[in-house]
Write a structure and sequence with these properties.
about 45% helix; Rossmann fold; two-stranded parallel ribbon; binds NADP nicotinamide-adenine-dinucleotide phosphate; 11 helices; about 300 residues
């Protein structure tokens, strides 16, 4: 058996760590790459690059030819319109599954979805992640598949949470969510380990699995700031950003993105995600299915991230 994986999103934060850990575990990787992608940080790793994108079915057919498994990690995480998210996150999955089920020997298929899919009404991103899961489930046929729903993932190379941790290092902690909101977190290496275990596992139930670092009832903003402040060994000023101000900033950013044609992270939809009261996950289903247990606590994960 060739033990080859088709990987999408290998140039992104999560996908690049997945690529390294899969290679270390002995898998051969063929990874989808757009001509515009920055692959410099992966130059050292032995990846066979397949040029294309999720809009191009032919490139997806080349990507999945004769592979044992597909890990679909590419996704739009920033955008203005629902259409932009749907085109990449839903139609991209539909094309990739289409290419996969054409194979003579069916590969197994893992979709890196998101906990956001649990609350699809909150944002165009969340809607698209839920629809992506449904598209996979409907089109997979006899193919083994699963969708992972990680909560917020952090680690070296992350561009979303790292700025927040850096601000805390400077002594200022912007508090964007409400005081009583609870959310789970996951260190990137634990996600990579879960992917490896799922790939090694013989037969798995086709299902959607939540993943987090195992902290019961997750964290509040204060918990995270306290852990970061302890690591930075400094007092930190909690700067509460009122919801109307956050909404105003998101609205302005949204309009600027439309006018200047860039893909924004902070949008009204993202504010609804940030302000959502409960992003606490449950690992039970995945633990029972493949025996995965996260190893990295928030304190240890932050230490490694900030190193
Ligand atoms: N980060 C988190 O906390 C988190 C949590 C839960 C779930 N997720 C999910 O995990 C996945 C990866 O997230 P990330 O944080 O690693 O994002 P990221 O750093 O922005 O990486 C996104 C990846 O997707 C690729 N991509 C985007 N549009 C594409 C297209 N049309 N065709 C081909 N490739 C395309 C990008 O390629 P380029 O390099 O060419 O742009 C990049 O490799 C996403 O599906 C996201 O929904 C992330």
């Amino acid at each position: 058996m060739s033990r080859t994986i088709a990987l999408t999103g290998a140039t992104g934060f999560i996908g690049s760590i997945l690529a390294s850990s899969l290679i270390n575990a002995g898998w051969q990787i063929q990874a989808l790459v757009r001509p515009t992608s920055d692959r410099s940080h992966l130059r050292a790793t032995c990846v066979k690059w397949i040029e294309g994108n999720l809009e191009d079915l032919d490139s997806l057919r080349r990507l999945v030819r004769n592979v044992d498994a597909i890990v679909h990690c590419a996704g739009a995480v920033r955008g203005v319109s629902e259409k932009q998210f749907i085109q990449v996150n839903v139609e991209g999955v539909a094309r990739l599954v289409h290419a996969a089920v054409e194979q003579h020997s069916l590969p197994r298929f893992l979709l890196i979805s998101s906990l956001a899919a649990r609350e699809p009404h909150l944002s165009p991103y969340a809607t698209s992640k839920r629809q992506a899961e449904e598209t996979l489930a409907a089109a997979a046929g006899d193919m083994f598949w699963a969708a992972f729903r990680p909560c917020a993932v952090y680690g070296p190379g992350d561009r979303e949470l790292l700025p927040l941790f850096r601000w805390i290092g400077r002594g200022i902690a912007p508090v964007l969510g409400s005081e009583d909101a609870r959310f789970s977190l996951l260190y990137i290496d634990d996600l990579a380990e879960a992917v490896l275990l799922w790939l090694q596992h013989g037969s798995c139930k086709a299902s959607v699995f939540e993943l987090h670092d195992g902290q019961p009832n997750g964290y509040s903003w204060k918990d995270v700031i306290d852990v970061s402040a302890r690591l930075h060994a400094r007092r930190v000023l909690h700067l509460k950003v009122p919801e109307p101000m956050l909404r105003l900033l998101a609205g302005l950013n949204f309009m600027a993105a439309k006018a200047m044609n860039y893909r924004p992270m902070l949008t009204p939809g993202k504010v609804r995600e940030i302000r959502h009261a409960n992003w606490v996950c449950d690992n039970t289903a995945l633990n029972q299915e493949i025996g995965w247990r996260p190893q990295v606590s928030l304190e240890e994960g932050l230490r490694r991230t900030l190193r």
